[in-house]
């Protein structure tokens, strides 16, 4: 259902708590990616197909207006294609390296957002955001230096973070105009179509025509349903909705906490496989420093601007 555009407003404590709860769910997504046995592209197809079905049922049940016009529909579907590539690289990174390395690479999302948001929204670059993004990159360099054996997985995660930043910036425009569940419905369909098209390409490039496991086993179905309905339908729709209260940069900076939540969960579930070198944790701490100082610097900057007016 189309809604009237409006200003973001001031986030409440409940909004912040909800955002952090979503980050915990997203941190658990990489763990589910490791638990599910089917390859990354097939996983994205199943995830987005089930998410589309449930969102379609929700839209019908709530009698939402899903007709948005052909040009907007194309925009939603293309954004879904970006999401599909993001998730494919995300799950592949968790398997090529491990959950911890994958989440550390994803923490560069704030830097990508600080670069992409001004381009898409045609506003001035904010030096504060660029500076905090550079801090995140410095942390990533420390991680890369001590975990060079995971270079491929880390690189996949960094590109995945760039794609995540891109669709967050794009969705920030949609969030003020269209219903979050309608946006998510179309984007999940676009992601499903894109992943389905990419499936034979990845099969030829990476599996050399060898038989691959396309059918989920018993436990896979449980994890895929959780991934599709909790981590996607609920969390993704709520994330689009929160873009009315937070800027894309603020959301992606908070998502930098995903490694903390995700790594703790991964160590508890996978044990020694997820224990990293001290250099890895030092680099992750540098990345998370940006999250902790952003609200303080933002408040200080706003206070100075107010006093100078």
Automatic annotation (TrEMBL):
<feature type="transmembrane region" description="Helical">
    <location>
        <begin position="44"/>
        <end position="61"/>
    </location>
</feature>
<feature type="transmembrane region" description="Helical">
    <location>
        <begin position="96"/>
        <end position="115"/>
    </location>
</feature>
<feature type="transmembrane region" description="Helical">
    <location>
        <begin position="249"/>
        <end position="270"/>
    </location>
</feature>
<feature type="transmembrane region" description="Helical">
    <location>
        <begin position="276"/>
        <end position="297"/>
    </location>
</feature>
<feature type="transmembrane region" description="Helical">
    <location>
        <begin position="68"/>
        <end position="90"/>
    </location>
</feature>
<feature type="domain" description="EamA">
    <location>
        <begin position="22"/>
        <end position="144"/>
    </location>
</feature>
<dbReference type="GO" id="GO:0016020">
    <property type="term" value="C:membrane"/>
</dbReference>
<dbReference type="Pfam" id="PF00892">
    <property type="entry name" value="EamA"/>
</dbReference>
<dbReference type="InterPro" id="IPR037185">
    <property type="entry name" value="EmrE-like"/>
</dbReference>
<keyword id="KW-1133">Transmembrane helix</keyword>
<feature type="transmembrane region" description="Helical">
    <location>
        <begin position="218"/>
        <end position="237"/>
    </location>
</feature>
<feature type="transmembrane region" description="Helical">
    <location>
        <begin position="21"/>
        <end position="38"/>
    </location>
</feature>
<protein>
    <submittedName>
        <fullName>DMT family transporter</fullName>
    </submittedName>
</protein>
<dbReference type="InterPro" id="IPR000620">
    <property type="entry name" value="EamA_dom"/>
</dbReference>
<keyword id="KW-0812">Transmembrane</keyword>
<feature type="transmembrane region" description="Helical">
    <location>
        <begin position="150"/>
        <end position="170"/>
    </location>
</feature>
<keyword id="KW-0472">Membrane</keyword>
<feature type="transmembrane region" description="Helical">
    <location>
        <begin position="182"/>
        <end position="206"/>
    </location>
</feature>
<feature type="domain" description="EamA">
    <location>
        <begin position="152"/>
        <end position="293"/>
    </location>
</feature>
<feature type="transmembrane region" description="Helical">
    <location>
        <begin position="127"/>
        <end position="144"/>
    </location>
</feature>
